[in-house]
Write a structure and sequence with these properties.
0% strand
Length: 312
């Protein structure tokens, strides 16, 4: 690794993780004025608009089998993952959804063990148990939500078990996207894989969203909602992917992985202090356990997590 770029590499990964942490926050603002399908579609239209120049400057050299893999990755990583994830967000709070994303580093370690022939040590399995307990505490903490305040700022509902579980399901789907993407990035530039994968996924959304969710609205959308959609697409999708992939060329992925913990931290802070989400004692304890498990798996465990591309 070029030592002169090491600091910039860590800075790029940290900035990407912070932007990812804003994804649920911007999504909740848009969801107050449109359905899940419209919000996800607009997010990726903005992202693709930014990535269009890369489609012309970085031409693909995929063979037929690799194109099939790319299309499968695009379907898993964009329409399927994001529609499920933000359907979950519509049923829970930004804080709960963000803390659930904190399980991702541990899930990646398990996936690497099961599918990438990596061996997780005792410390890794302990982190998995701690993270699972934390996620369970957050999910069960919905009973602590005050019935006197069923809906919070911007129409944000009280957390629900269904919403939290949908977010976790989207993370499991993201694992398949990550592992398949790894095959492509062994032979092709991450920029090519990211740009063309995003473009293909956006085309799929254009085909899927209107029949299921109806035509996306254009009228009666506030400036704040459009700004949130643009920020979601440009910062939380296009910029994060490019920053993260470049950062991983400068620093080891196993070391950069610890920076993924910025995502649930930023998301939960925005949820509590900006959207006025309420976190009960169980949710706070569960979030602390998840963050602790993520730090352990990325700093203490000998398990190498080679796939580091989060969902939000």
């Amino acid at each position: 690794m070029p030592t002169r770029h090491r600091t910039l590499g860590f800075a790029a990964c940290a900035l990407a993780s912070c932007f990812w942490g804003c994804g649920f926050f911007f999504g909740k603002i848009a969801l107050a004025q449109m359905n899940v399908g419209a919000m996800v579609l607009y997010r990726f239209l903005f992202a693709t608009l930014v990535l269009i120049p890369l489609l012309f400057t970085h031409r693909p050299s995929f063979n037929r089998r690799e194109w099939s893999t790319l299309l499968l990755c695009a379907f898993l990583g964009i329409p399927l993952q994001f529609l499920i994830q933000f359907s979950g967000l519509a049923l829970t709070t930004v804080s709960h959804a963000s803390l659930m994303v904190g399980t991702m580093p541990v899930l990646l370690a398990v996936a690497a063990t099961l599918f990438a022939h990596e061996r997780m040590d005792a410390t890794g399995w302990l982190a998995l148990a701690i993270s699972t307990a934390g996620a369970a505490l957050i999910a069960l903490s919905v009973r602590e939500s005050s019935p006197a305040h069923p809906v919070s700022h911007l129409g944000n509902p009280a957390p629900t078990l269904a919403g939290d579980l949908l977010v976790v399901l989207s993370l499991v789907i993201a694992l398949g996207w990550i592992l398949l993407n790894k095959r492509l990035m062994q032979r092709h530039s991450p920029i090519v894989v990211s740009a063309y994968g995003t473009a293909c996924g956006t085309l799929m959304l254009l085909l899927i969203v209107p029949p299921i969710y109806g035509l996306p609205p254009l009228a009666h959308i506030s400036v704040n909602a459009w700004l949130a959609l643009a920020a979601s697409g440009v910062l939380c999708t296009a910029a994060t992917t490019l920053l993260w992939n470049w950062g991983l060329t400068q620093v080891p992925a196993s070391q950069a992985g610890v920076l993924l913990n910025m995502e649930p931290l930023i998301g939960s802070i925005l949820g509590v202090f900006v959207l006025h989400d309420s976190l009960g004692p169980s949710a706070r304890l569960g979030g602390a356990l998840i963050l602790a498990a993520s730090l352990v798996i990325t700093t203490r465990s000998r398990t190498r997590i080679r796939e580091q591309l989060p969902s939000t």
